[in-house]
Design goal:
Radius of gyration: 22 Å
Bound molecules: pyridoxal-5'-phosphate
Distance between the termini: 59 Å
Structural class: alpha/beta
Largest sheet: 7 strands, mixed
Number of strands: 11
Strand content: 15-25%
Shape: globular
Oligomer: single chain
Number of helices: 13
Length: 354
């Protein structure tokens, strides 16, 4: 175990980069007339470029997340943060990332786009993290380890001690993707940020916040790491409509969000039982997220029949350790009942036709 040195792991060209300075960066006082950014004078207020630093939204988020404003990066979905992390730290054709398998597909896709190698480390057969093997796979070109917890598509949250072991052993960046943390009863890693200078946490407005359509993702890390991401993002990566909408939801609809969250968690518990009672369901894996991974006889056939009934689920049959598995998102009570009815119907038909 050595020590983490941010300057040593950031790509040299990124370390030296002088970022684009926007009109709104160069002026930050009060003014009545803005003739600095070649905007149209018409169609107020959307004629203006949005705040490139998203100060108002970050100020609203900081107390909710119990972090400092400087520890927040906002992206066009967390997918933007994933891409920027790889671009900031991984030299194309040289460096690599480590990703547990199975996990969220975007880490590998973003790495591929950037010509960065992905080293996959298989989860144990019960979907737990193999921290020792991940540590064993680290080499001098490993810059980032992505750990999705609760994990997509398996649904389980990894053991805290295993994740801490990796953070402690690695001198590169460890990214914990907590897209599903609000559905879990166990705590995440946001409160650990000040303890680990190499830790990043990703969250998103797309799942528990119910705003996938506005494309807003969050990354949390030390102010130094956040500065690097901010330097390389598009200047106006979060548009004004998204900023307005997110601020309004945060300020005025928190009660509604919590009610929705509770409904989803209740439905999840109910459906867990219902699904387990279906004869051709082999296993409903425990989930800390808003979906279940379900092992089912002839999953692809069931998938196709569900599609014919107008119900789309995720077929994970071809994913490592997920043979004959489908992933069901928790929907509304009505949607879930339709799924159940459809599954029962498929089961009856199958028994009839052998
Ligand atoms: C859904 C999901 C996200 C969210 O991505 P956005 O770009 O913010 O919509 C991130 N990570 C994982 C693992 C996910 O499943």
């Amino acid at each position: 175990m050595g020590s983490f040195n941010l300057k040593a792991i950031v790509r040299e060209n990124i370390g030296k980069l002088k970022p684009y300075s926007s009109a709104r960066d160069e002026f930050s006082g009060e003014a009545a007339i803005f003739l600095d950014a070649n905007e149209s004078p018409y169609n107020s207020p959307l004629n203006r470029y949005p705040d490139p630093h998203q100060r108002e939204l970050k100020a609203a988020l900081a107390p909710i997340k119990k972090v400092n404003v400087e520890q927040i990066f906002l992206g066009n979905g967390s997918d933007e943060a994933i891409d920027l992390i790889i671009r900031a730290f991984c030299e194309p054709g040289v460096d690599n990332i480590i990703v547990p398998d199975p996990s969220y597909g975007m880490y590998h896709v973003c790495a591929d786009i950037n010509n960065v190698q992905t080293k996959f480390v298989k989860l144990n057969s019960n979907f737990t993290l193999n921290a020792d093997e991940i540590i064993h796979q680290i080499d001098k070109h490993t810059k980032v380890i992505f750990i999705c917890s609760p994990n997509n598509p398996t649904g389980n949250q990894f053991k805290r001690t295993e994740i801490l072991k990796i953070i402690n052993h690695f001198n590169g960046i460890v990214v914990i993707d907590e897209a599903y943390i609000d559905f879990s009863e166990k705590p995440g890693f946001l409160s650990e940020l000040s303890n680990f200078p190499n830790l990043m946490v990703l969250q998103t407005f797309s799942k528990s916040w119910a705003m996938a359509g506005i494309r807003l993702g969050l990354a949390f890390a030390s102010a130094e790491i956040i500065d690097i991401l901010s330097k390389i993002k598009y200047p106006y990566n979060i548009n004004q409509l998204t900023l307005n909408y997110a601020l309004d939801r945060i300020k005025n609809y928190e009660t509604e969000r919590l009610i929705w969250l509770k409904l989803i968690i209740e439905e999840k518990k109910r459906m867990q039982h219902e699904l387990q009672n279906l004869k051709f369901v082999k296993e409903v894996f425990p989930s800390d997220a808003n979906f279940w991974l379900v092992k089912i006889e002839n999953a692809t056939e069931v998938y196709n029949k569900l599609v014919m009934n107008g119900i789309v689920v995720r077929n994970r049959n071809n994913v490592t350790l997920c043979e004959n598995c489908l992933r069901f998102t928790v929907g509304s009570t009505d949607e879930n009942n339709k799924l159940l009815n459809s599954l029962e119907e498929i089961m009856v038909m199958r028994e009839r036709h052998g």
